[in-house]
Amino acid sequence: MIDTAQLEKNLELLEGRIARACARAGRPEHDVQLIAVSKLHPPELLRRAYDCGIRHFGENYAQELRDKQAALADLPGIRWHAIGPVQTKNAKYLAKAAHVFHALEKLEVAEELSKRRTGEPLDCFIEVNVAKEASKAGIDHGEVAAFVEKVRALPHLRVTGLMTMPPLTGNPEESRLPFRALHALARRLELPQLSMGSTHDFEVAIEEGATLVRVGTALFGERPAH
Ligand SMILES: *Cc1c(COP(=O)(O)O)cnc(C)c1O
Fold first, then answer.
1. At 106, which CATH number?
2. How many domains does the chain have?
3. The predicted structure's pLDDT at residue 168
4. I need a labelling partner for 118 at 20 to 30 A (CA). Which of 16, 22, 49, 181 fits?
5. Hey, which of 104, 125, 214, 222 would you mutate to test ligand 1's pocket, going by the most ligand atoms within 8 Å of its Cβ?
6. CB neighbourhood size of 15 (10 A)
7. pLDDT-flagged residues of the chain (< 50)
8. From the CA of 215, how far away is ligand 1's center (Å)?
9. Which pLDDT belongs to residue 225?
10. Alpha-carbon torsion 89, 92, 97, 103, what sign?
11. Is the dihedral of CA 219, 221, 39, 41 positive or negative?
12. What's the confidence (pLDDT) of residue 112?
């Protein structure tokens, strides 16, 4: 686990890169929200990040998110982003603990989340498979509009945007066209938010319109094994 000095340094470097990407794109910095992807890291590291000013945390696994939320319940103002797909049987944990869900792709999960949610509606991003990979998560481009309509009919969810995760190729430029396609689709559907970009391609994502970037490794270093 990295120490506070290293974390502060990583955060400063990351914020600088985000600011420069915003400047290149002619966008104000406050357009882009950094989500610190903390999956598999211990709660003590999240506490350190909180002390550095981070409030938005991204977690992939429903039970892990639930446990960390409980462990850090004494810290006011945290926003929990569930960024990985969830099985229907585990949706209840997200309904209770998450503020935002980035990986909605199944109607059954949407229905379960809506059924279990109390209080504020859960903000949801529809995960889109823009690169059309058979193995990857997300809904096909052409099916997103119909899916959004169905989710909009559910009372305790709010569709706020689209999300995608292009294949990791080692070359961030290869994410540009998928990001651009996601932006065009969001515009067509009048969805204001775009969750796209991780450590290897967040700068390209910002240039292509990301409003939330999900960055783990550049901030916290390598993750412990699952
Ligand atoms: C793990 C993960 C990230 C962060 O990846 P890094 O390469 O560590 O920045 C972003 N988005 C999703 C959906 C993830 O699962």
1. 3.20.20.10
2. 1
3. 86
4. 49
5. 214
6. 14
7. none
8. 6
9. 87
10. positive
11. negative
12. 98
Q: What residue type is 215 in one-letter code?
A: V
User: What is the reported pLDDT for 81?
Assistant: 98
User: Which atom of ligand 1 is found nearest the CA of 84?
Assistant: 13
Taking a C-beta distance cutoff of 8 angstroms, is the pair 55, 77 a contact? Answer: yes
Q: How far is CA 148 from CA 39, 89, 157, in A?
A: 28, 22, 11
Provide the domain limits for residue 140: 4-220
In a domain? residue 23: yes
Q: Which amino acid is at 124?
A: C
Q: Which pLDDT tens digit goes with each residue over 134-186?
A: 667 899 999 999 999 999 999 999 999 999 999 888 899 999 999 999 999 99
- Reading the block at residue 14, the tokens are 């990351």
Q: DSSP E strands: which ranges in 97-191?
A: 100-104, 122-129, 139-140, 157-163
Is residue 207, in this structure, part of any structural domain at all? Answer: yes
214 CA from centroid of ligand 1 (Å): 6
Q: Report yes or no on 179 lying in a domain.
A: yes
How much is the pLDDT for 135?
63
What is the pLDDT at residue 136? Answer: 74
Q: How would you label 34-62 residue by residue, b for 16+ Cβ within 10 Å and e otherwise? A: bbbbbbbbeeebbebbbeeebebbbbbbb
199 lines ligand 1 (CB under 6 A): yes
In a domain, 192, yes or no: yes
Q: Tokens for 122, please give them.
A: 């859960």
Category of 120 on φ-ψ map: left (φ > 0), alpha (ψ -120 to 50) or beta: beta
